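Checklist before submission:
- one chain only
- standard amino acids only
- sequence pasted in full

Submission:
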Amino acid sequence: MIDTPKARAPRPILITLAAATLTASLGISVASVLLPTLTRSFSATVSDVQWVVLAYLVSITVAIVSAGRLGDLFGHRRVLNLGLVIFAAASALSATAPNLSLLITGRALQGLAGAILVALPMSLARDLVPEERIGTAMGLLGTTSAAGTALGPSLGGFLLTWGDWRMAFWLLTGFASVTLVLSITSISRVSARGNTTLRDLDCPGTFLLMIALAAYALATSGEAAAIPISPAVLISGALAAITLFVIVETRVAAPLVPFALLSNRTTGIAFIMNLLVGTVMMSTLVVGPFFLAFSLGLNEALIGLVMAVGPVVGALFGIPAGRLTDRLGARRVMVIGLVQTVLGLLCLAFLPRYLGVGGYVAALISLTPAFQLFLAANNTAVLADASKEQRGRLSGLLGLSRNLGLMTGASVMSTLFVTVLGTGNVEQAMPTDVAHAFSMTFVAASGLALITLGLAAYSHAGRSREAPGPAG
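Returned file contents:
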């Protein structure tokens, strides 16, 4: 076994970790543009084909903490390579699926592997990247995640024009295979913990957490899930499972989620902030299109172009956000990012009403870099002082908290928009009413960002009392 010195962490390692993150991100975004074609290919309903996207998202959410834990126990490099193998195989299964059921099965397996590709690049970066460049590494991972979100629909549309929907999954197979070769050749073997037993895996806790997360994910998917169980019943089931999970975790020798991690002020608050920012981020995706279509009167093509501004700006600003984190310190950049988030959300609430599309684009250009600043700084702050045995688990929890925020935002922020609008049929609403509901939704989102800023200040104050000295 060879340990790679951090001081000599080569560029190929960062390229490999970025490629793994890009592969997982493309797995989400490239499939969304395929749904209309899939309804025709399989003579299926919209609710049926929505599972091509939902299966991937639910699987990632359910498995992401366990993926990090497996990395801690068996070695981050080894588990990352396993994830790439499974992702490539699941992509090939999806590409050759003769029916919709098998395609959804392949997508669920892709999501399980995608959880590894989301969780472990962060912990591997913490293992292999020099201390003074951790922020830059986190920023690079943020950039590739945003780039995958931006590129996916374009790539999917191009492949549909050039070939058929199966080409998109062959593309994912190729991405995963190339990344696997990069990982094998660029990341040296590192020592893994020996004598791992089933007790170390915490199977009861893992099962209960998966049940809780799956129920919550389905509840927040709304009508798209098209399952014969009401959201209220699913939320009740999630609460029951999470209660049992807490009881189990306090009694097992090697818990999946040690509550000492969550009770630590800095770490626990970081996860809450990640969830809140994820909720705010999702509001731009689920509420924005309604305003652009029914208040500003844009067609689908123009809505797509305007909505692409956010991911493109995010992709461009990820690495600078990471470098700024290295230079100024994680906590200072986190506060800067959250202040800018509050201001950006207020701009989004009001500028488009007075300046139209130009105001909307200007607000996105102001807001998206703020998200990248926060994510790079928050991820760096959580992982900077983590022990090697906890890094995979912490990375998984960071990914989980963000996913929970995205799912919560998709449900809660769209519900808030409809509530303020006063009707679920936005086509029948007056453009001025749509604009008012849009503004009030993003005023509420700015309030969530302000609460997050207060949590950041509280966490920083607590850390300063515990360990006086320079922050960052």
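Reviewer check: Confidence is low (pLDDT under 50) at residues 1-9, 466-472.
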